[in-house]
Write a structure and sequence with these properties.
It is built from one helix and ten strands; from the N terminus they run βαβββββββββ. With 118 residues, it is mainly beta. The chain has a single domain, classed as Calycin beta-barrel core domain (Lipocalin, Beta Barrel), CATH 2.40.128.20. Strands 4-3-2-1-10-9-8-7-6-5 form a ten-stranded antiparallel sheet, with no helix packed on it. The longest helix has 9 residues, at 14-22. It is globular, with a radius of gyration of 14 Å.
Length: 118
């Protein structure tokens, strides 16, 4: 199964954020034999993670953080929790009105990215 989704999204740091704000990455989601793959592709940067639900794995994020990550499926949402240096981020992905909505939460801060199916 492959579902490409496209979005505009923020970057990290001022210069990266400026490029990121103009970039519309595609998110390709695949699943085979219980292994999921989330691949974000743009002209700026491509990242990919492969995982099994409920199994922790080491992840290097797009902004180069080294995290321990676990992805679960909760209440119709794909929830990705990243832990590093005593900090934690959660990314919740769900389908709303035919669009993939990704909410990244850290403390009281929430960033939202919406992907539209091509």
């Amino acid at each position: 199964m492959c579902a490409p989704w496209g979005a505009a999204g923020p970057g990290v740091g001022f210069a990266t954020r400026q490029v990121g704000n103009r970039t519309k990455p595609n998110l390709v989601v695949t699943a085979e034999d219980g292994v999921f793959c989330l691949k974000s592709q743009s002209t700026f940067k491509t990242t990919e993670i492969k995982f099994k639900l409920n199994e922790p794995f080491d992840e290097t994020t797009a902004d180069d953080r080294k995290t321990t990550t676990v992805v679960t499926f909760e209440n119709g949402k794909l929830v990705q929790k990243q832990s590093w240096e005593g900090k934690e981020t959660a990314i919740e992905r769900e389908i709303e009105d035919g669009k993939l909505v990704a909410k990244c939460k850290m403390g009281d801060v929430v960033a939202v990215r919406t992907y539209v199916k091509e």
